[in-house]
Specification:
Elements: E1 3-9, E2 27-32, H1 33-41, H2 52-84, H3 95-106
Antiparallel strand pairs: 1-2
């Protein structure tokens, strides 16, 4: 497969502590011609983004949000099962019991 171009994204180092992106990194990404053309269509005068860096950062942000949402949904589903269990299936446990089960599950 022939690769069309390399995108470099990331700007410069920021030193503000309150900034979420206090330090940025520059990364090189190789993509195919087809992906390059698709990205180019989303950048510039006719696109949604001003530059490729902005586009790539937004893609990564959305992927991160999706991953976090999936983890939350898995946790929520497990909690829903636990709360739906009949009350007689619950048993008293101390903190030591819970920690012991956790260690046993992990082989610690």
């Amino acid at each position: 497969m022939q690769l069309a171009c390399v995108f470099i994204f990331g700007d410069r180092e920021h030193t503000k502590v309150e900034d979420n992106m206090s330090q940025t990194k520059t990364m090189g990404v190789r993509i195919s011609s087809a992906l390059s053309e698709f990205a180019a269509a989303n950048v510039g005068d006719n696109g949604t983004y001003e530059n490729t860096s902005e586009y790539v950062r937004d893609l990564i942000r959305h992927d991160k949000e999706r991953t976090e949402q999936e983890a939350f949904d898995r946790l929520k589903a497990e909690l829903m099962l636990a709360f739906a269990a009949p009350e007689e299936s619950y048993r008293p446990s101390s903190a030591a019991d819970v920690i012991g089960r956790f260690r046993d599950d992990r082989g610690v």
